[in-house]
Design a protein that fits this description.
By secondary structure, the protein is an alpha+beta fold. The chain folds into two domains: 114 residues, no CATH class; 127 residues, GMP Synthetase, Chain A, domain 3 (2-Layer Sandwich). Helix content is 27%, strand content 23%. It has eight helices and ten strands. Strands 1, 2, 3, 4, 5 and 6 form a six-stranded antiparallel beta sheet that branches. The protein has a four-stranded mixed beta sheet with strand order 9-8-7-10. Strand 3 and strand 4 form a beta hairpin. The relative contact order is 0.13.
Length: 277
């Protein structure tokens, strides 16, 4: 058996074949015949000598039917992503299903060569891996108003859900990025929302979906926080606009904070809500 070195064939995003999966005792709850295992460790760390970095982190997942609300790393806990090749398929991975495998054991096997992530989906996979550790923190008072006081977080999630994969993400700009302490319903946060939609494969369908989402959110905010007094309370929604991922600038991306839609579904769990990237 060759020594592990910088020429290793293993790369982030590659899949283990069935022999490796079975030998390493990796099995998803859906069953061994449904198990898919992907390498999560970054290429630079994979190249390191096992003497210094002896472990490869993998994620144990399963075959899945695509759920658009789990694509594009919108959900920090669960990812649906497509592998393409001789026999393309969708797989589901959960962030809590990471397992450490010794390089010395993985070195006995070669990665699958018949399917892989395309470059765009590899980038999505990386973003999803990072999302558990890179979340934008919103002020507690802002979160309380949006989720508990007004239930508008539920309205946002409800507006996005039917459009699935067409929506790449929902991004917030609260008070222009400056953290301000707010007290009382008349001391309003200012909020600008960007509904980011995909550019491919159907730009017009995605644009239409994002426009519908933006309209629904504006209507919900206006009904809850502007009517009938004609004066904003709690949170002033200054704008809610659709935007294509193809025109979002890097500067805009750095200024915006992703609002992760799945945090409401976690509210009953013992863990803290997942808010945003």
């Amino acid at each position: 058996m060759a020594e592990w070195n910088r020429d290793t064939p293993w790369r982030q995003g590659l899949l283990l074949d069935k022999d490796a999966v079975d030998a390493l005792g990796l099995c998803h709850a859906a069953g061994s015949d449904q198990t898919i295992v992907v390498v999560a460790t970054h290429d630079c760390d994979l190249a390191q000598d096992p003497q210094f970095e002896s472990i490869v982190e993998v994620v144990v997942g399963c075959f899945a039917v695509k759920d658009g609300n789990c694509t594009h790393a919108k959900n920090a806990r669960k990812l649906h992503i497509e592998f393409v090749g001789d026999l393309s398929f969708w797989a589901e991975f959960e962030a809590t299903a990471k397992v450490a495998v010794a390089k010395s054991k993985l070195n006995r096997y070669s990665p699958r060569s018949d399917v892989r992530l395309n470059p765009d989906d590899h980038a999505v996979f990386q973003i999803w891996l990072a999302s558990r550790y890179r979340r934008s923190a919103f002020a507690d008072e802002f979160e309380r108003r949006l989720t508990k006081e007004t239930k508008l977080a539920e309205k946002i999630a409800k507006a996005v859900k039917p459009h699935g994969e067409l929506i790449a993400g929902v991004f917030f700009d609260v008070d222009g990025g400056v953290e301000v302490a707010r007290e009382g319903s008349d001391d309003t946060y200012t909020l600008d929302i960007t509904i980011l939609h995909t550019a491919e494969p159907d730009f017009l369908a995605a644009e239409k979906a994002a426009t519908a989402v933006a309209d629904a959110i504006r209507e919900a905010f206006k009904a809850k926080l502007f009517e009938p007094s004609k004066q904003w309370r709690q949170i002033e929604l200054r704008s809610c606009e659709p935007m294509s991922e193809s025109v979002l600038t890097y500067l805009e991306f750095k200024q915006l904070k992703r609002w992760r839609l799945e945090h409401m579904s976690l509210a009953a769990d013992p863990q803290h809500p997942v808010l945003a990237e």
